[in-house]
Amino acid sequence: MSLILDTLSWALMLGGAGFVLIGTLGLLRLPDVFTRLHGAGMTDTMGAGLLVLGMLLQAPDWLVMVKLVLIVVFLAFTSPMTSHALARAAILDGIKPWLRQADKGDAP
Amino acid sequence: MREKPILRVGTKFLIPFILMFALYVQFHGDFGPGGGFQAGVIFASAFILYAIVFGIAHARRALPAGIRRLLLSLGVLIYAGTGVLALAEGGRFLDYSSLAAQPVLGQHVGIFLVEFGVGMTVFAAMTTIFFVFASRDPSAREQD
Question: Do B7 and A81 touch (CB under 8 A)?
């Protein structure tokens, strides 16, 4: 039983770490503010979500479980809000979203 | 006020939890991680978030300068008053053991009062610094 739980929690945590890695790559490599925000947003939702889910399976008692669930709930509220605020500020500042320019052919 | 419904609703939802977490950090500081300074900063961050989303003028109305000044000095008074009280009870300055009949109970009471004073002063100082810096920006005054 404990072996199954351990395996499952490790798989979830590694999956979460993979999402964080992809999100970080996107944050570094994508061309403009909005696409980078997309990469950063994925880190928060899927990455942190899977990591906490994996930790939930390792939790020793219910008090730790409640705290972990609260972390997920507040991340689910605050992360989209901050992404929205940043994107909104960028739009109001007059930044145009990046679009592929086939004629110029400039790589990102 | 300009329209930003997502931020306004989200902030209204979050602020009570931030304040409650600050109080938890304040009063659980004897037993777990936390204490007066951290609690004051978290408490102040709720007001700073409110000021950023709803405008400085609204935040100033919620937390007038007079109250901030009062809290700023009251916190220091509580801190130093605890020390002087310990001195008057026959101990040394900030020697909590002399505050109650049993030394351990006295230490509990003493650290509670001192951390309460620290939290109060840090909260007032943080919000005051934010308001002073925010009102230096002329564009911030127009938006309110």
Answer: yes
CA neighbor of A32 nearest in space, from A100, A107, A98: A98
Q: Mind telling me how many Å the CA of A48 is from chain B's nearest CA?
A: 19
Residue B16 at interface with chain A, using a CB cutoff of 8 Å:
no
Q: Which residue of A has its CA nearest to B9?
A: A81
Taking the C-alpha atoms of residue B9 and residue B14, their distance in angstroms, rounded to an integer, is 9
* Domain region containing B139: 5-143
Identity (one letter) of the amino acid at A45? Answer: T
**B10 with A78: Cβ contact below 8 A:** yes
pLDDT of residue B144: 39
Give the number of domains in chain B.
1
ipTM: 0.71
Domain-by-domain residue ranges, chain A?
2-92
Torsion A40-B130-A92-B6 (CA) sign: positive
Q: B53 to each of A3, A78, B9, B10, B133, how far by Cα in Å?
A: 48, 14, 10, 10, 16
Average pLDDT, chain A: 87
